[in-house]
């Protein structure tokens, strides 16, 4: 729209300038050609009738009558309104109006120009008074034509005549209209062509702007997601650091409360009287040594149990189903309890981080079921729903309040699952506890 307005105004102004210049050139050319044609005709008719203008300052009566007869006859006579023959001094040597013959006037600029050898013409420059003096209301063509001496070519007189130019006006109007139509058509074609180019460019820019806005919106969305993920990772990192510290404290507490106490007990019993006193009966000494061995063996078993909970089996190359079977088998071997395992016909292939998270879920969930539910109704179920892998670990114990008593193990599981983009849910009631993990397979692959 801006181009149509600004370009239209600019092209219209250019059209007017070009049109006015072209029409002025056409007008001058038509007037000049018409004047030249008429002057040539007058020269061919009038010049032979004139005497030697260098020797005769006035025309004889016979010459005047010949001029009268000639100017009143033929096509020229019908169009000729006025005719004057001037000398250099501004004297009228002959005129169709006898009253003007012999009068002297101040030479006009057009008359002086004609005495300089130029054929000069003006079209319709007369006012109403001049038209009344000429006795006509038609448009007139005023022509100043130099009369030359045949043998020398010098200008000896100037013929001034006014010709009715109605036909000339029609021809001129037709030429002007044609020129304006050509200029206007060319301008309209140029405006249409440029408008088409600008319109196509505008549409291209509009499409590109929409595409750019969509890309910017997408980029802003990605930046927002990245910002959220960054904050999420930062929070997860801080929580992971805190949880790792709590894990270390838990391991220290487990070592202190379990194996360390047993080792300390064994150390105390080494100093018992049954071993130190030489007079102690051999039977009592053997019994004391057996108790110390038993205590140390119990400490070793607890240390191995703690180590087994910390060390992962080789699960990088194992399938998801095999990982769940391994976790269930280890738990059943360690606790001598039974676990129900339900697997679908096909499970997706996951990365190492996802496999570790699944193994830790099954391990922690089953350990909690053994500790808090005495292994009642322990179950592990895996299923595929809508492109999502869902794994549940449940029991039939008395339950707990997840909102207020989520322990270190559950908090670690939640952080672990959320760090890989999954969702962790813990629900508990008087009928039992259920831990659920949901992983989006499309995001993992």
TrEMBL record:
One of its GO terms (molecular function) is phosphorelay sensor kinase activity. Its main location: cytoplasm. Gene3D superfamilies: 1.20.5.1930, Histidine kinase-like ATPase, C-terminal domain. SMART domains: HATPase_c. Residues 212-239 form a coiled coil. It is an enzyme of class 2 (transferase). The keyword Mitochondrion does not apply. This is Oxygen sensor histidine kinase NreB. It comes from Mesorhizobium sanjuanii.
């Amino acid at each position: 729209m801006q181009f149509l307005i600004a370009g239209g105004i600019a092209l219209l102004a250019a059209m007017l300038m070009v049109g006015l210049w072209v029409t002025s050139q056409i007008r001058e050319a038509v007037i000049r050609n018409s004047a030249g044609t008429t002057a040539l005709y007058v020269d061919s008719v009038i010049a032979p009738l004139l005497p030697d203008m260098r020797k005769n300052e006035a025309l004889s009566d016979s010459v005047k009558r010949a001029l009268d007869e000639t100017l009143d006859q033929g096509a020229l006579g019908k169009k000729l309104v006025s005719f004057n023959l001037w000398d250099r001094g501004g004297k009228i040597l002959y005129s169709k109006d006898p009253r003007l013959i012999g009068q002297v006037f101040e030479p006009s600029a057009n008359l002086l120009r004609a005495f300089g050898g130029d054929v000069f013409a003006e079209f319709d420059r007369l006012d109403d008074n001049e038209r009344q003096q000429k006795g006509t209301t038609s448009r007139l063509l005023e022509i100043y034509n130099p009369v030359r001496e045949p043998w020398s070519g010098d200008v000896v007189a100037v013929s001034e005549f006014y010709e009715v130019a109605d036909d000339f006006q029609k021809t001129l109007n037709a030429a002007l209209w044609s020129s304006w139509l050509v200029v206007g058509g060319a301008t309209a074609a140029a405006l249409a062509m440029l408008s088409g180019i600008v319109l196509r460019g505008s549409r291209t820019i509009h499409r590109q702007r929409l595409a750019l806005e969509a890309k910017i919106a997408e980029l802003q969305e990605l930046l927002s997601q990245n910002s959220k993920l960054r904050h999420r990772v930062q929070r997860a990192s801080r929580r992971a650091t805190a949880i790792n510290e709590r894990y270390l404290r838990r391991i220290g507490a487990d070592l202190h409360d379990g194996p360390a106490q047993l080792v300390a007990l064994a150390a105390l019993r080494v100093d018992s009287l049954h071993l130190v006193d030489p007079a102690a009966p051999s039977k009592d000494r053997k019994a004391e040594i057996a108790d110390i061995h038993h205590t140390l063996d119990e400490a070793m078993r607890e240390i191995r149990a703690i180590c087994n909970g910390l060390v992962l089996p080789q699960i990088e190359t194992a399938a998801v189903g095999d990982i769940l079977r391994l976790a269930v088998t280890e738990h059943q071997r360690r606790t001598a309890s039974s676990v129900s395992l339900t697997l679908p016909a096909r499970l997706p292939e996951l990365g190492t981080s996802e496999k570790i998270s699944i193994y830790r879920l099954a391990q922690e969930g089953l350990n909690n079921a053994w500790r808090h539910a005495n292994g009642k109704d322990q179950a592990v179920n895996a299923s595929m729903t809508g492109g999502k892998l869902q794994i549940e670990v449940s029991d039939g114990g008395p339950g707990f309040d997840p909102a207020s008593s989520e322990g270190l193990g559950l908090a670690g599981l939640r952080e672990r699952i959320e760090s890989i983009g999954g969702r962790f849910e813990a629900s508990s009631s008087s009928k039992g506890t259920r831990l659920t993990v949901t992983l989006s397979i499309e995001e993992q692959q």
